[in-house]
Amino acid sequence: MIDDLILKEHGLTKKEYKRITDLIKREPNLTELGIFSLMWSEHCSYKSSKVYLKKYPISGKNVIQGPGENAGIIDIGNGLAVVFKIESHNHPSFIEPYQGAATGVGGILRDIFTMGARPIATLDSLRFGPLSVPKNRTVMEGIVSGIAGYGNSIGVPTVGGETYFDESYSLNPLVNVFCLGIVQKDKIFYSRAEGIGNPVLYVGSKTGRDGIHGATMASAEFGEDLEQKRPNVQVGDPFKEKLLLEACLEVMDKNLVLGIQDMGAAGLTCSTTEMAANSGTGIEIDIDLIPQREQGMNPYEIMLSESQERMLIVAQKEKVKQAQAVFAKWDLEAVIIGEVTDTQNLKVKSGGKTVVDLPVSAIVNQCPVYKREAKPPAPSTYRNGLDDMPLPEDYEQVFLHIIKSPDLADKQWIFRQYDHMVQTNTTVLPGADAAVLRIKNTNKALAVTLDGNSLYTYANPRSGGTIAVAEACRNLACVGAAPVGVTNCLNFGNPEKSEIMWQFKEAVQGIAQACRAFQIPVTGGNVSFYNETEGIPIYPTPVLGVVGVIDSIDKTMTPEFKAPGDSILLIGKNKEELGASEYAKQIHSIKNGLPPEIDLTKEKRVQSLCLEAISKKMIKSAHDLSEGGLAQCLTECCLLGEPKTGCRICLEDHIRTDALLFGETQSRILISLEERQKDAFKLLARKRKIPCSVIGKTGGENIFIEHLGKKIIDIPIQKVYSLWKHSLSDFYKIR
Amino acid sequence: MRFGVVVFPGSNCDHDTLHVLKYVFKQEAFFLWHKDHDLKNADCVILPGGFSYGDYLRSGAIARFSPLMQEVKEFALSGGFVLGICNGFQVLLELGLLPGAMLRNKNLKFLCQNVHLRIENTDTPFTNKGKPGQVLNIPIAHFDGNYYIDEPDHDKIKENNQIVLRYSSADGVLTEEDNVNGSSDCIAGLVNENKNVLGMMPHPERASEALLGSQDGHIIFDSIIDYIK
Asked: ipTM surpassing 0.95, yes or no?
């Protein structure tokens, strides 16, 4: 008998239960209820977000697969396509940082190779609480090692990402993993269960009791009992996944299978029902045939288990033996557990008895869709806040404080734990605006970046969303790439609260608006709600993953200054904007300022100027201005090169010095070029109607900046380098 | 010449190594499957980087028992050329073809970065194109690269000039800081007594194309290609 307590444990409301009984015209048994609870969880069903996600532009001439499959696919020419997606693994990573993050990597890799693509890169967007708190250091160390442990072993390079720190993530760190794969256009596979009577194969790890209710867990707030949730976290086995990866790509390459889906969130339940629903068929399986890790597991546990490294495959009868032989070569067992039927039902048998018999469309397509109340918070206290920020007396001190803050300091402590070079495609290593990967046997390269700013989104969700897209595209422009597709991971609090829903709705609209302006389709992604612990939500954190193409790899650009004596130019206009900036947060402890303005028309013009200059080989470096403003941008341009180069900057703008140095005004790019190209570039900028000014020269041993004739910063680059480089690792020194 | 690149199920630099041999050095190169007993007449066998059998126990500990490794061992002992890169080096140690053992890196973290290597001995089939004391820039990517050798064996390999590569600064000075993983005597690569087997932690296949930033890996590949020719 299903009572209120059971419903509560399954995260279903009474209304939802009523809908279930109406749909199946009877009471479900416990296993059937478990199946509904997983598939109707927020994580799997997108029931609270669906209505808003419809705002995204999802089509375009190069879109091969939009949202709805394991990953999105974009045609990039040469008979090739890129397959990419981003997913969160926030909740498990807080409960068990190493395994939570590791299985996050494992899950997204499977989403990519399920479609026939070889994963060629991953990136991570991470958010932690302040490192001054020991627990946060442990969490970060565990998460970074987990990502490294999985990705390094399987041999997919982790080529970039972003990491930020804020108190709101102390009890809710974020782990968003992006993966990019490459596939021949004629070798793409989908999640399908076609051909009545065709066998259904189970491949990979045995099923255990790990991860039962993982998707449901990810769809609720955490309370004080979160330590007890540890058994809900799965344990990863990257070696097994490597075998699966190679074997699956081989059976797909040899055309031995028809349809394939990984068992990720909601495991066997999700893969069987979705494959059948996608094809309008049914699936019947015998649960006794499923390879099991432990004895005495009941159908409920087996159907709900989220054990890792498992795949479900539908093959033609006559090719099964061949497919099994390939799996055997890779030491994997491929067991026939059932067949495709014409019933449009999922039927599960155990001990000869039917234990589940449900219409797949009810499970997959009939989940209720909610348009939850979305209401802005009480009259805004957000303000531009210049009056609250007195001008600093000592700019050098402020400058050094900012560049060594964990948000802006060098992230080498993180990325040198990742093998970012394996597969020998990474031509621009982590630390630049975007990672660049060559495509072997072509002249092209791919550029990838992740971007999101939760301070901006908190103060103004719509512009937070818009700026994330704009900045990601600007990152791509700085390496010489044009954007072709977007994926996004939307990390928010509890959607049942009206102000959270409002943040979500606004952010999605901001993203949609920017994607339309840039004419780039959103091909999928992931929504992670309920990022709240003990009632405290995270800052709203949309993370955008944008993929771009560089048509000719010799036209790749990098951020660092290349030689002394080059001219430094700033594209765009400096404004007096300090709200929601790192400067406001780090120096004045003000986090409720309004984010900088964004004008998408201007933004696009700035980016196309940068791309044009790169393609005409006029410039030697390009770097986007973002968090930390001009000061941070200059620092990175000076420090990322080898040998490092100083700079001498003279600024003439009649605005506050702190706004000029640390303001995060949008649509600006810093470039360097040879003296002789200066006039040609200025002329080009004028023609394209974009403001641009020569602000100084590269060279010397110092970062030297003056404003209106007054020296404000003059520090040896070695000193800056040492503070910037060791900031993160210093937190891990034995005290 | 013919290069055989061994594929263990967890190898992940096998394709990279084959790629440079075929398309950069224009050599005949092919994979050798770990379950086979056939070296396909290779002149040089390469054990590539990766995590051979998952390496949950100890890097290379299981690979040592794989069917193909029995052939590789015989091949090496009878003078055949064998190059072990990263995980391949770890496997060579487990096979007993080279002395010493690997410990976790001294900072107990995986390390992926470019390092400088000083060539200590150019009188080997793998380094004859280099100049003594020449500094190479080649990346490493490993967790267990902290090479350890006890004193008697250390004396022996020094006496026989078996140390081939040492971690150094850009100008060839040995420092604690540049010895990133904490290896005994800064050793990054060494040969066996007969000098037909080289194990090295850095990845020359990642430093063989201008696009990737360094072409210093050519010294290793060009040397062996020229030596066998």
From this structure: yes
